[in-house]
Amino acid sequence: CVYCFTEISAGTVFVLKGEDVLLNVTNADVLQDVFSFSWKFNEKKNVLTVNSGNKPNVFPDYAGRVEFSVNNFSVKLKNLQEADSGVYTAVVIKHSGDVTEAAKYNIKVQDRASLPLLTVSSVSESSSSCSFTVTCSSQDSHINSTFTCDTRTCSQEGGERSEGIPDTFLQVYQSSGSIICNHSNHVSWTNDTKTIKDVCHQLDDPEGLSVCLVKTCVFSVGLIIMVSAVITVHLMEKLNKNK
User: Fold this and answer.
1) Which InterPro entries match (predicted)?
2) Contact by Cβ (8 Å): 134, 147
3) Which end of the chain, N or C, is less surrounded by CB atoms within 10 Å?
4) Report for 23-27, 84-88, 124-128, 207-211: range of highest mean pLDDT
5) Which of 221, 133, 117, 210 is nearest to 170 (CA)?
6) Model pLDDT for residues 186-202, shown as the tens digit of each residue
7) CA atoms of 170 and 236, how far apart (whole Å)
């Protein structure tokens, strides 16, 4: 071809809203014999351009928000907002006229995951087990799950579902004696929890109750023995005096 255009695929990078991201050009061979270099947003909008031997020209929308390295042509984008989500492409124009994409990133800016809410909608208890249904909800979605627990284990019906805002996830599960409602995305997570024993009161450790009962019995028996011994000694002393 007289003038060749080389395109590459974009890698996805998730960034927390308000944070910075560094976009690198990893293929050093592409940076040989450069006539013009530019970083573009969504193919058409220029972030910055630099011609051979000249200083970088940062476009007005990115003034004060860009750091550019003349050594490796990397760019740092600062204080990213949701409107900055999109495809960023490093474009190299050679002296020969060939055009090459030197790097391409699909940037997705996400806010922190909102705090979810875990609620118990129904509880059914028996002497040996407890069954209850919980709802794990966020601002845009919810998930229901039913747990059946005894003093040793819990089984679960229901699980993880992702819906509403793209790339966000809701999950409800049990761990270490608690039910956990977790809301997350690719940059953050948060949760709400409830202790199983606060939902199923009869699942308090029966062994702990037995120990308490044994201690009470031992104390009572000991007290009775002590009182009996005192009475016996007193009676014997009284009998000896009468003699």
Assistant:
1) CD2/SLAM_rcpt (IPR015631), Ig-like_dom_sf (IPR036179), Ig-like_fold (IPR013783), Ig_V-set (IPR013106)
2) yes
3) C
4) 84-88
5) 117
6) 999 999 999 999 999 86
7) 77
Q: Which two tokens stand for residue 26?
A: 């990893």
Structure token pair of residue 103: 């790097």
* 108: Cβ contacts below 8 Å, ≥ 6 apart: 12, 13, 14, 15, 85, 167, 186
Other CB atoms closer than 10 Å to residue 7's CB: what's the count? 10
Torsion of CA 58, 61, 64, 70, to 10 degrees: -20
User: Are 115 and 109 in contact, with CB atoms under 8 Å apart?
Assistant: no
Contact criterion met (CB below 8 Å) for 185 and 110: yes
Q: Could you tell me the two tokens for 153?
A: 């284990």
Residue 29 to residues 38, 72, 222, 228, Cα–Cα distance (Å): 16, 11, 89, 99
Q: In Å, how far from its chain's centre is CA 31?
A: 39
Radius of gyration of the chain from its Cα atoms, rounded to whole angstroms: 35
Give residue 7's pLDDT band: very low, low, confident or very high (50, 70, 90).
low
Q: What gap in Å lies between CA 7 and CA 98, rounded to an integer?
A: 12
- Structural domains present in the chain: 5-110 (2.60.40.10), 117-203 (no CATH)
